Amino acid sequence: MSKKRHSPDSQPAKINPFMTLPEHGLSAEQIRESLSQFKQRDLSWRNGRVFAYVYDAGPEAEAVIKEAFTQYLSENALDPTTFPSTMQMERQIVRITAGLLHGDQQVVGNVTTGGTESLILAVKTARDWAWANRPEISHPEMILSRTAHASFHKAAHYLGVKLVIVPFDEESYRTSPEAMREAITDNTVLLVASAPNYSHGVVDDITGIAALAQEHNILCHVDACIGGFQLTFMRQVGYDVPPFDFAVPGVTSISADLHKYAYAAKGASVLLHRHKNLRRYQMYGSISTTAYAIPNPTMLSTKSGGPLAAAWAILHYMGQDGYQRIVRQVMGATEKLIAGIDAHPDLYVLGQPDMSIFAIGSHSMNVFQLADVMKENGWLLQPQFSKTATPQPNIHITLSHSNVPHVDAFLDDLSQAVEETKSLPPLNVAIVKQQVDSLLKTLPPAEAATALYQLAGVEGSQLPNGLALINTILSILPPPIAEELLMQYFNDLYT
Ligand SMILES: Cc1ncc(COP(=O)(O)O)c(C=O)c1O
């Protein structure tokens, strides 16, 4: 039977406005062209101007992970009896990561699809551990501060664990162990610490928090999703890194993402437990259906062997000296960037970051406007919400290998962007707050939502060119209202 195909010319496929499946398959060339065309709308990270989302160790490393990924594209890591090589790679990745994080032979773990999955599983482990060992607890609670990652909030939502949020120190951005101590109840099952937190790059007092967990016979998870690998190699090249891993007594689990500072392909993180008796509560198994047996250590069942193979490949391609080389470069560039920003009369760095991620604030302008001006010049900086009594706009930088050669250009453009921002009509947080508060006070919730969208300049799913006003409004709104607006917007967007 002959297959009918569109002529294999190099014309990209016309985008079908009704998004129906084409009657006849497209040629490989047309598909390649179409995908390249789609990408033209994306911000290009290849020029080192994107300070988030992408961790790229250079073209040779990229070729290595691509090849490994495609070699294992179709192997299904669901079933290690059919594909034992996937389990072998996973075991090796886990042992390597445990060794780097001062874990002994008792430490066990698994590769998950990312930081979020690792954190959800860390919370599930604590909940199920409590079900088994503390049956008197009917409503388990975990304690964290607002500097911990949103994945813990998601885990609480999915798993029915109560979030108990304690203050963080507004000078150092560290979670306070004393505040945690006061918040512990008979229902507490887990204390959460970050190494470091994403927003400010600050490592919590892990020793203090883990000791508290040990004293109360509860679990302590260290979220080293972003810092696990970077802090380890910083320590190896002589940086003074605060204690954060299994060397600290009382730490019961650690997450460390391979697809961040280990420069693996996306879809790879490691979740480690101090011993197998704890990991037991991470597991899920079912033989309750008419189909096959499900013994799942992680959340997914079917999963491509691609991310596993790519992670195995990059760890072995880089080796310790490869990571050490990159860490030296990244930290050199970070120090230059922080010094340049701190020397700028209009800007400052928040707190004292422990690695290559940090936040920028300003006393003389709304830095959400600065982020918009920088974005027009192709630089991506992430707006952040301060969660302090008075909202303080700040913008986040994650500096990784691909940004290193562009630090001087960045500092030059940042200075120019500051001047341009100062020449714009100012976006005053206090004035926007008055407008928002008045809408919330005078209108019923549904009308207030419409009025807030209008105030923010959102028309249907169309966003305004600059996002400064939207971000300012989001930073002011009480989180439940802001979250509802975000979910409504995204519910409309994906249609
Ligand atoms: C500290 C921390 N934890 C968890 C996550 C979530 O990771 P992912 O986006 O891989 O799910 C991140 C992401 O940046 C993070 O920085």
Corresponding CATH superfamily of the domain at 70-313? Type I PLP-dependent aspartate aminotransferase-like (Major domain)
The rough form would be described as globular
Q: What would CATH call the architecture of the domain at 70-313?
A: 3-Layer(aba) Sandwich
Mean pLDDT: 95
Distinct bound molecules = pyridoxal-5'-phosphate
The CATH class of the domain at 70-313 is Alpha Beta
Count all strands and give the number.
13
Number of helices: 16
| CATH fold-level assignment of the domain at 70-313 | Aspartate Aminotransferase, domain 2
Give unreliable regions as ranges: 1-10
Cα radius of gyration in angstroms = 24 Å
Q: Could you spell the SSE succession in H and E letters?
A: HHHEHEHEHEHEHEEHEEHEEHEEHHHHH
Q: Strand portion, in percent? A: 5-15%
Strand order, largest beta sheet: 1-7-6-5-4-2-3
Helix content: 40-55%
Coarse structural class: alpha/beta
What characterizes the major β-sheet? 7 strands, mixed
First-residue to last-residue Cα separation: 37 Å
What does this protein structure show overall?
With 495 residues, this protein is an alpha/beta fold. Among the domains are: 70-313, 3-Layer(aba) Sandwich (Aspartate Aminotransferase, domain 2); 429-493, no CATH class. Helices cover 43% and strands 12% of the residues. It contains 16 helices and 13 strands. The strands form 3 sheets. It has a 7-stranded mixed beta sheet with strand order 1-7-6-5-4-2-3, with helices on both faces. α5 (150-159) links the parallel β2 and β3. α8 crosses α10 (306-343). Pyridoxal-5'-phosphate binds at residues 114-116, 119, 149, 151, 194, 198, 223, 225-226, 257.
